[in-house]
Amino acid sequence: MDSDLYPDLAAVGSLAAALEQLAAELGVDLTVVPGDWGPLVSAGIASSVPERKPLSVHIGAESHWFGVSGWSRGVELITGATPDLADVVRAGAAWGRGGSLRELRAELSFARSSERAEAHERGLAAVVDLQWRTMREQAAEEPDFTGFGELVEAAHAEPRLRQLYVFSSHWTLGFSSCTGFPFRNEVAIVPSYSGSPFRVKKYPLSDDVLGEAATAEEAEALAVCHLPTDLGPAVTGTAEQEG
User: Fold this and answer.
1) What pTM does this model have?
2) Residue pair 156/132 in contact by the 8 Å Cβ criterion
3) Residue 207 Cα to chain centre, angstroms
4) Has residue 242 got a pLDDT over 80?
5) For residues 223 and 189, is the Cβ–Cβ distance under 8 A?
């Protein structure tokens, strides 16, 4: 930590100590927990909402600012940066009491949230629908990569794939039974490119190929054959902890 950039932090010894001291001065009840990069430059602010991870707080390296990031069930719900540590204290209090994204943004001018985060707040159907819409838009923006577009449309037309959370990695479509990261991969399909076949795999980046197909429709049918028979719609959470 650069004491010239952060004399207030240097005076008390750490970011965590500075947060606790300022919260006490402002009369704000906060529970400060260890951060991901050590107490000098990072800290967390605990939440009373079980599924919310502590609000992550860290300092800038080359200029004076504080960054925050709030995650829940594998999704970053809110992020932002501010030069004022009091803003961080207020953000921690709002995050900790379970404020909605709209409430957080209204109260904290520096905070922002993504369309995906807002979809998660609306519910599972909104999350899955948004992801499929985003994937179809991505395919439409690549008209010369016909194999990818054909694959996206064929997969979207299949109900057992459409109910899952779709994502892409190096143009390979992955299908997850949970909506947060890290994903629970159920099957993946590599699109046809320059005459190559469509390939069905267990994981997007694995070398093990479960089978090949000449068309996108055949590929999605083959992928469905490798899904667990009792697999239902994607659920909220991550591969580490769902529900």
Assistant:
1) 0.76
2) yes
3) 26
4) no
5) yes
